[in-house]
Amino acid sequence: MWSSDWSSRCATTRTTGTNCHINITQSSALRRLQVPRKPHTVRLYNNRRRSIAVRMAMAEAEAKEDTTMAGSGGKSREELNKGIAELYDESSGIWEDIWGDHMHHGYYDPSQNASLSQHRSAQIRMIEEALRFAAVTDDSSKIPKSIVDVGCGIGGSSRYLAKKYGATTQGITLSPKQAQRAQALAASEGLADKAFFQVADALDQPFEDGQFNLVWSMESGEHMPDKKKFVSELVRVAAPGATIIIVTWCHRDLSASEESLRPDENELLKKICDAYYLPAWCSAADYVEILQSLSLQDIKAEDWSQYVAPFWPAVIRSALTWKGITSLLRSGWKTIKGALAMPLMIEGYKKDLIKFAIITCRKPE
Ligand SMILES: C[S@@+](CC[C@H](N)C(=O)[O-])C[C@H]1O[C@@H](n2cnc3c(N)ncnc32)[C@H](O)[C@@H]1O
User: Fold this and answer.
1) Distance of CA 151 from the midpoint of ligand 1 (Å)
2) Where do the coiled-coil regions begin and end (predicted)?
3) pLDDT in tens, 126-155
4) Domain residues of the chain, as ranges?
5) What is the pTM of this model?
6) In contact, 246 and 359? CB cutoff 8 Å
7) Of 163, 299, 354, 364, which one has the fewest beta carbons inside 10 Å?
8) 52-362 architecture in CATH?
9) Contact 171 CB / ligand 1 (< 6 Å)
10) How many helices (H) and strands (E) does the chain have?
């Protein structure tokens, strides 16, 4: 398992003895951010280079007009967003029917065998573990009062956080059906004046600068065709001192001797991308590097793959029940294609190619 804590110079990693030094050079893509970046030597939890996927994606973004986004498999940003919106319009009802209002992995004790109700608890635990990892305090004078939920699904995290902290939440999704359902659920739970939802693009958020004390992105980053723009928007809308939490699918970090993933790994990811409307993947190290380039503080990342292992087998089991099969047949081709690709996710985790990552940081005061 990799782990890093950039603010404390990889204290966690030092204890496992796996860290080493690497010189990170300022890439042209990062220079384009126009963020002053200190020349420095940083410690990475593994001696690795910027992932080729991100380098290629950024170079591609540089070379093309804004309408065709990096790493989106030749799709324009509009085409990708349309596919994502349709996928979630089509599949959110059946997911909610079987799994409830959280469209994310559960967090389990390693090797836990869980029943459906325990899976739902594990999804709540995922939220709590993410808050704990990011050191979001329960101290009433410091709890987040204004939260943005970027890629909100049907608003499960938003409503949970609104209740937990008494906060006002703003959720954005590409799917009109999700936004509508999220708002209806908020009303039915007495949160109509606390939790708000709208259709909007995370890469162009409809919010003023510096509004939110907690910026939350639970399993939406993997859909973003321009990771740098995605992170820049999260940082832009964060208030000074705000916590930013990104929980997302990544590919493994590259070793020092690697320029890219292996062809068989790329092939597997491509099949998953086709099924779930994902652009090119990046590693957690790539996210860390982007955050560093933006001078964020307390940057931490951890691989939680071992804690989510029971999730996909459980989703497959639920799809193979009578209710699962009949719901799938009624849903639509995009949902069926997604269901057929589920074993590929298990394969990716088993091959140590897919990593379930949490990356957190704080915006300077
Ligand atoms: C797997 S769901 C996660 C939902 C939610 N965060 C949860 O944990 O229940 C991915 C979500 O990301 C949203 N999403 C993907 N790309 C987006 C974008 N560019 N802008 C806004 N939302 C996006 C989708 O619409 C969907 O709601």
Assistant:
1) 3
2) none
3) 999 999 999 998 998 899 999 999 999 999
4) 52-362
5) 0.83
6) yes
7) 364
8) 3-Layer(aba) Sandwich (3.40)
9) no
10) 15, 10
